[in-house]
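User: Structure tokens for both sequences below?

Assistant:
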Amino acid sequence: MDQSVKARGPSPVALVVAALLAMTIAFVGCGGDDGGDLSDAGTDTGNPPNEDVTLDACEARELQGTVASGVVSNSSSSSYKASYQIEVDFLDAAGNLVTNGWTVVDDLPAGGDAPWETGAFGAPSDAPIVDCTITNVSRHFPDQAGDAIEGGNGDS
């Protein structure tokens, strides 16, 4: 699955502000571990988690730097709520990795949709980001016995 979107490069000031904002969010609370055992691998081969996520935009924002965003839809065959971790690479014009970002969408009901976004926090100002690519999506069912987790890369 090739999901990439071109972007305009962010300003250096926006990158610094975005980095500070990202660190604040990461340490204050943006989801997290519910204490469950994530080693028990569950599978839903008919609905892999990477097919539940779209990348709709990769854009430079004045105060946030480059942000990737889209929608996640819980289309698993499970009737449980699911949590998703979405990982994104931010690339320069030559296709080189500038930085990566990730986000978590928690407690998405079966059949439900939710927006997601993550920023290119900590990206150097001399490497303008022009492309965003989803590299991995994992889906976790925290209410399911055994805390099943499923993963998939964005290249399926």
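Moving on to the next sequence.
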Amino acid sequence: MKRGLVFGFLIICLISSMFSSEVDAYFFTFAETKHDEIVTNWGLLGGVGGYVFDGQFGLTGAFDFRNFTIGDFQPHNTHASTWPDLFGDLYYLLDYGYGWYESDKLTVSAGFQELEKGLGETYKIWLAPNSGSYPSVSLFYKPFGDVFTVDFNMLFLRNEIMDFSLENIERIQTAKTLYYRSYSLNLFDAFRFGFSDAIMFFGRSLDFVYMLSPAPFQTMQEIMCNQTGPWASDAVNDNGFMGLFFDYDDDFFRVFGEVMIDDFFPEQLFDPSKKTEGKVQKIAWDLGGAINIGERSRIGAEFAGATKYTFQASAHSPTVPPYAYTHYDEGQWRDLPIEYNMLGYRYGENSTSIDVFYKFKEESWDVQAHYEFVCFGARDPFREVKNTGSGFVWLDDPVLEKQHKLKFNLGFDFVWDTHLDMDITVGRIWNKDLFEGLNENIFEFSVGVVKFIPMMQFMRF
């Protein structure tokens, strides 16, 4: 298998070089050890990867062995029973693997990607790198340069699987797909604003009504679900999100704001009598700014959060799919840490977080320092009961968990194209797991190293 990977990568380099005189290609190996709120054991990881890009077309991928826990869950390989005890908890994953095409106006990528969508430097409220890659297709189009851009992404989170061994064929896994799209308008040099929306649906991997319509996803959902006509479908029961954003970023100063709306009832803002039980405002937000100090330093702050019940279905019944905005939602995986399982904002519903940071970067090394405050109440993306309360329900629990964290990161390049990253986090938790008076110190760390091996130096034409 290893020979096949090496041979395949060299063939890619050869083909790429035929079309371009400038090809960037390298292998890399990497290793990491870590312990944090997700990886609760002494986690170890090691892997290999590759990258090739000829100026328009590119391929990249990485594969690793690890023993990382996911909260209280320890993944296993079924063959581990025959391995030495030292390797009993090892399993392997495809970190990512995708190809892409770039031109002046269009970028398209497809494969196993871990997408990041959102304006924040610390928090991404739409799509965040919390739990690994997934099959996806992305398209970024700017027909008039940076004046107007379209960003469209399809995430195939789960395939549909049928059990043909049964007399009456049964569906044992339901397809789950998320579409995310963003339109951005930049009429000034440093200021842009725009509209974002997303739709999550079950039972099919592709939906051409959503995919091909230029109208917002929620508009098409209304047409199919809440109108009577031959175009309507009683079977469609999807979960839509929409949002607005702005971003001002010049050479010295940046400020941005972004809101994601799950459910919103504007009449409640002007008439308190319209607040009825169960109609809650479900929104998430991310606000922040930063100042550049010279060419190398940057200081800033970010404030994000989400009201209670955001990222989940409003109605619950046996006929309503589990519309949680999570990577995994099948019964046995519902106890995964929220910070791992969320597709977007890592702390999920009924939470808030503030990050104050300082960043310094030199040519061969960089350092960061963060202070983060996190506060949340009861969070459950898979509630089996209907929403309670009305209006903005947020952090109204009798007991709240509060976290204060100091984070430090150092990264630097040293000999032979090798890069080292070191992170350490210390802090304190109050009311851990919402148990009043249960307090605990925080100590987290990670150390990672990557060795790059340029490949074109070995090729002669």
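User: Anything stand out in the second?

Assistant: The two ends are 27 Å apart (CA to CA).
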